[in-house]
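=== RUN LOG ===
request id: a7f3
mode: sequence -> structure
chains: 1
length: 422
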Amino acid sequence: MVEKYQNALIISFNEDVSEIAQLADSLDYHVVKKFIQHRKIPDVNFYIGSGKVEEIKEYIDNSKESIDLIIIDGELKPSQWFALEKKLNANVYDRIRLILAIFEERAERKEARLQVKLAQLQYERPYVRELIHRARAGEHPGLMAGGEYQVDDYYEMIKKQMKKIKGELNKIRNDREVHRQTRYKSGFYLVSLAGYTNAGKSSLLNLLSGEKVKVEGRLFSTLSTTTRKIKNKKPPVLLTDTVGFIENLPSWIIDAFHSTLEEIEVADVVVLVADGSEEKKIVEKKLQVSINELYELNVTASVVIALNKIDLVKQEEADNLISYLNQKALLNNRLCVPISVKEEKNIDILIENIYKSLPHLTKIRLTLPLNKKSQAFVSHLYQIAQIVNITYGKNIIVEVACNMKIEDEIIAQCQELKGSVS
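=== RESULT ===
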């Protein structure tokens, strides 16, 4: 599906084309010109008005540079896509198809590739229906600008492929649930990093875990979940990096990535990362998109907002941004920490707020006999819980703060060692 284009045009109803230009740049497309048409309702035939279509066609015909791709900053109906490609004699991508092309290039792991393929097939279905309609009307269109196909057969193939992929994704989802339950039983809390694409989630994961997960300063550089443990902290917390959000992403793409986004849904705490160095209205918009996505995913866990990249702004600007977000009711009593991953600023405060937000942290006081088995058990406790206090005398007295999911297990092991709980 993905091809390399050297030059592209952008067509938009909005003056601000920064995000669609970033998306184009993510696939190494060189945008040579932007056409803006001020209208609220798309034209039924071409999406843009016929006059604007003629203007663009004239530009393409007279351009010294070859125009290989036309990018629509919006969502095309199949009939509009077909009419534009035929009229302009060029490949046309709408915003969704461009994002799917980025997904396809970024997908490295099997699960991500399956999710992208499912989304692509879902996207293609209405287009194939349009091609079937036109073929029966006597036209001979190619499929997605890719040559001649028997479109009826292709439509049936899409349905079969989608069914197969959903089955494979369900198996991966079930396997992940088994791993998740194992982690819970081992005393781990689960914290998900969420937020708008390119906010710095992967960099934050690396800093908090001490790992070196691949980081790129590009949109959607992360499509697969990556889970790592927060270093040197108890009780143990596992961090999961997730695919970034973006505005106006159709629900069927969200559904295709459900097995990945589920990590946000089941988290004990969600750290919502935003780029705090952008203009406050952009931060507001992206934060609102991200919060809406959390609602759509039925997230009920505590949310900690991390305003990243504050090393790029003055302290006064960071303070004003937080005040502005409060006025817009976006923080809504959520904990909010301005941070800089690059300069490791306020990271300790962020970690403190993550731990403060963990649910159901329970405390147990154990009295153990002083012997080797008890000492081995205490060593185990250091791995799965937070040791609040420990004293050695005739007995070992340990005060433990732990995930309530392993409370019964700790008590049972203590009693096996002839210890007592108070």
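=== NOTES ===
The chain has four domains: 7-106, 110-167, 187-356, 361-421.
The first strand starts at residue 7 and ends at 12.
=== END ===
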